[in-house]
Amino acid sequence: MARKIPRPFVLGLVAGAVTAVFAYACRTTGPKGALDGDIASRVYVAPGEYDEFYAFLSGGFSGQVTVYGLPSGRLLKVVPVFSQHAENGWGYSEETKPMLETSFGFVPWDDAHHPQLSKTNGVPDGRWLFINANNTPRVARISLETFETEEIIEIPQSAGNHASPFVTPNSEYVVASTRFSVPVPQRDISIADYKAAFKGTISFIRANAPGEMDIAFQLVVPGYNYDLAHAGKGPSYGWAFFTTYNTEQANTLLEINASQRDKDFVAAVNWRRAEECVAQGRGRDVPVTYAHNYMDETRVARSERKQGVRVLEPADCEGMIYYLPTPKSPHGVDVDPSGEYIVAGGKLATVIPVHSFSKMLAAIEAKDFEGEADGIPVLRYDAVLAGEVQNPGLGPLHTEFDGRGYAYTSAFISSEIVKWKLGTWEVVDRIPTYYSIGHLMIPGGDSEKPWGKYVIALNKITKDRYLPTGPELVHAAQLIDISGERMKLLLDFPTLGEPHYAQALPADLIKDKVVRIYDIQGNRNPYATLSEADARVERRGGTVHVYMTAIRSHFAPDIIEGIRVGDTVKFHVTNLEQDWDVPHGFAAMGVQNAELLIMPGETKTLTWVPKQPGVYPFYCTDFCSALHQEMQGYVRVSPAGANVVLTSNGAGQSRVLASGGGR
Amino acid sequence: MITRRPPLVPGGDGAAPEGAPPSAPVVVHAAARRVRFQIIASAAPAPSRLSAGARIAVAVAALALLAVLVLPLWRIDLEAPQYPEGLGMEIRVNTIVGVKPNDLNSINNLNHYIGMKVIRPEDFPELRFMPLLVAGLSAMGLVVAATGRRRLLYAWVALLVLFALAGLADFYRWSYDYGHNLDYERAIIKVPGMSYQPPLIGSKQLLNFRAHSWPGSGGWVAIAAGALASLVAARELVRARRARGVAEAA
Q1: Nearest CA in chain B to A350
Q2: Contact: A9, B234; criterion CB under 8 Å
Q3: Predicted-complex ipTM score
Q4: Do you find a cis peptide bond into A381, omega within 30 degrees of 0?
Q5: Which residue has the higher pLDDT, A528 or A35?
Q6: Burial class (CB in 10 A: 0-12, 13-18, 19+), A134
Q7: For residues A162 and A131, what is the distance between their CA atoms, to the nearest angstrom?
Q8: Would you call B110 an interface residue with chain A, using a CB distance cutoff of 8 Å?
Q9: A496 phi, psi to nearest 5 deg
Q10: Which chain A positions have a beta carbon within 8 Å of B192's beta carbon?
Q11: Mean per-residue pLDDT over chain A, rounded
């Protein structure tokens, strides 16, 4: 019977169904990041071997910095910066609490976005790492000898310190600016008065002298959102570039209201011109107060309040600032190694515009302006444009350079890195990232001499990359080889917090100068106990100072009596070790505080206000020796007003008692 | 229920000998008995009634149609790098839902970037009467199977095809509307010349999303039912033509 059904009809049906099923089955787009060749050996660092690069990843909302080795992707350290870190007592111990002081008081957390290595002649020099605090505007300096935060300065008249702390080629300055414009000066005012009263500020912070970070001068600029920055170099030395968005000056629902204009601006700031104007006494001093926190050779942080900042308006200093029209809500602004090209990533733009520094100078010379914005000349787009990269991926954000004439731009929406050629602006390669890349980083890739071997994708979305761990996932980073013509995915590794941006440099620049111990003879902490013979307790009014030493495997003293409810107890614990990698920890039961982690030769102080009588054990928390478990002691707490004599079994105690008790 | 012309027995070339078991429909005994009765009762040569096999096939097709009351008619799947788990929506006969519980919300939330209207099931009046239409079509198919009337079969198949085409046209119309009538005032991403209509059937890149538009499981069942009904109708057409030929020859 079937033979009597018109055959073409049946064949057509079958063919149609087969095609449909085949097409349906083939709709997925392929494997996720297939690897080829001997990739594993490219990232394998044998046991005991060192990585080639130090990479410093910001922790984003963790407020800290993480240190990774490349190419292995191994986590080497978390450097606490803007957030309390109970793990080692950062922001809990008396020596470190002042580091988190601000004009608003103690702030235990921040959002750290952009690490920046200090530079000499436009190249990372391995002295310091700077990083910004987004939320309560600050910039920190981290020593790359101790891998510790040594200095934090608050930025007055600012909010949302995002375009920060990009450094000038000789670390003359790190910059800071307002992502959120605010009333300048700050005051109680209706938010509806945004356009009239809200301003942006761009700050230049003196950065090349430890302990002397200061706001050199501050530009008051129109109330846009200043987003990212990079300093000029080579021919563009002396300039710094900042992206802006929300030139619409919306103050609500910016998602829509700040996305209206086809072009926003890149602000080009001639900071040497600004220096001249300041030297000529132009501008005015504004009486503002801001915190400056510094850990000097005593290794006890001090927090001081600085007063006043020199402010320049554009009108005070002609030639100091120009606007370059740039499509469309630009985010990153990156200067190529030659210093000629200024690449802006318009997150809603369909091209990557590249401005030419030489054309910009010519346009300024010729006064080729298309208008003015609040007194700032706006250059003509076509007059400053070097070229546009077509089809750069969706949502282009940031660009880094390999030093061989290529640029690498991250595209957030299409989740890829796009490689393109400087000068011809043609896209030559692209590679997917997993997923939704924000910044990308080539070691030295924003400097004059990139070490263009790898690029790291710093992604915002992780989803299925690793074994699932509940709703909260780590962020993923991918290491990609860029030494060849085609980019090649090598490694995918998890990170801490939000690795917002990163910096990296060859390990050789740092590794041999890294501090291993603090010299006990150089310990300048006023509460240091340099020898076990001096271990003791002393009462000064309601405060009991415990001068304690720690050495394998005991504390001295390890018996303390005579503390009363209502006393404030300060444990000043000095680690007498002078061996590499023998920290001691200190913790006591019921202490409403973190632990101390004390490095060899260092003194740290934990404050305790006991509330109940009893006997409290304390112990070493960092496994230090075979008899680590024996490293313990007791504190007796008596009721308020009790007559128990303050005493301890510290060897220095007899002297104190002989001299008539505590001072 | 008197027929003038006996149906052809599958495989045979005319009326089967009286009392002979029907050669094809052996599954449903009631139907088989009726076939025998028809064969006995029939006298005229030209068939206007369906064979038992055809009627069972029609009944199966008609009942299969009911599957779309519970299974999705159509599926639009969205793929993007940052959605490795996929996003999708199902067009059902009475509603539009996400493939996963929150998919429709997620799709609507993504669509706000491009200024697309919010997709809300209650905005599609078709979804209110489509279940009735499907039930009606299924019932009509059952009537065709019960009566075995050939003309009714043709009418039913024609309605099925019409319904399918109208459905596709309607789907196209809505997807065009949603894909093109964008709120540029509120759109955040505005790509000149870009529209976001998913393909009627097949795959298409829409910014970072690859949209796949294919029948859902219910849709495939309906297509199979329609194909089965069409095959039966085509067979009946051929048989009728042959029967006419035989009658004319006689």
Answers
A1: B191
A2: yes
A3: 0.81
A4: no
A5: A528
A6: buried
A7: 10
A8: no
A9: -105, 145
A10: 350
A11: 93
